[in-house]
Amino acid sequence: MPKLVVCGKGGSGKSVLTTLLARAAATGGYQVVVVDADESNLGLSRMLGMTPPAMTLLDYLGGKKEVGGKLRQAVSQKQKEVEFSLLRDAESLDPDCVSTVEGISLVTVGKVHHVKEGCACPMGVIAREYFSKVSGEKQLVLVDTEAGIEHLGRGIDAAADVVLVSVDPSFESVLLAEKIFTMTGWANIRCLAVISKADPDTVPVIQAELEKRGINAVGVIPADRQVAEACLSGKPVAGGLAGQAVAELLAYLEGEIW
Fold this sequence. Notes:
Blueprint: E1 3-8, H1 14-27, E2 32-36, H2 44-48, H3 57-60, H4 63-76, E3 98-101, E4 104-108, H5 121-133, E5 140-144, H6 150-154, E6 162-167, H7 171-186, E7 191-198, H8 203-212, E8 217-222, H9 225-233, H10 240-256
Parallel strand pairs: 1-5, 1-6, 2-4, 2-5, 6-7, 7-8
Antiparallel strand pairs: 3-4
Helix pairs in contact: 1-10
């Protein structure tokens, strides 16, 4: 089964799309692994209806200081890769690193917690290493990335079977989608666009802007009051019109990708 990266502009609906894809897949009998690779967003576990893992992968590997030290050493010794021995078998993490509910497992790479704690580069390296090693043979693996294109620069997408770009009703989101399609094209990574948070009158406008750039959206996730209220109140995200649309998107992906 494939590995999917979900990306897009901040606020474009990445985490909602990831959550609803995970739920639809689990309902269909898949074992799903969700990787929270957004070091600033705190809401993914809540959307999934579970508590965050007791330990992030960053903590598991010794913390930012330990991981950062290995990265600096690798640079000084001109090493191209950094080996994290604890991630050699990504399927056998410490149980404290994983939260599981109804066929969905959540792994959190790391979060920024303190002022002046430094850049998030160690988390990016860990996300890339874990995603490249976790098996997609018996499970669907979904990565919820940080906003923008940092994940591409970090090389996280290299292990993906497909990158899903969530495009909301804004010109900035369309431009970012164009950039992501260009960059994934250079790297020969399959990329698909999904229109999110759009009402029926807006969808044709977004489709037209995407088509001008040679991009055809493979799905439309409508603006859904039920989802909006869940996000506003801090409740799990499930069902509704958006959930139905994502189930249809999953069926499309099953036919086209695996």
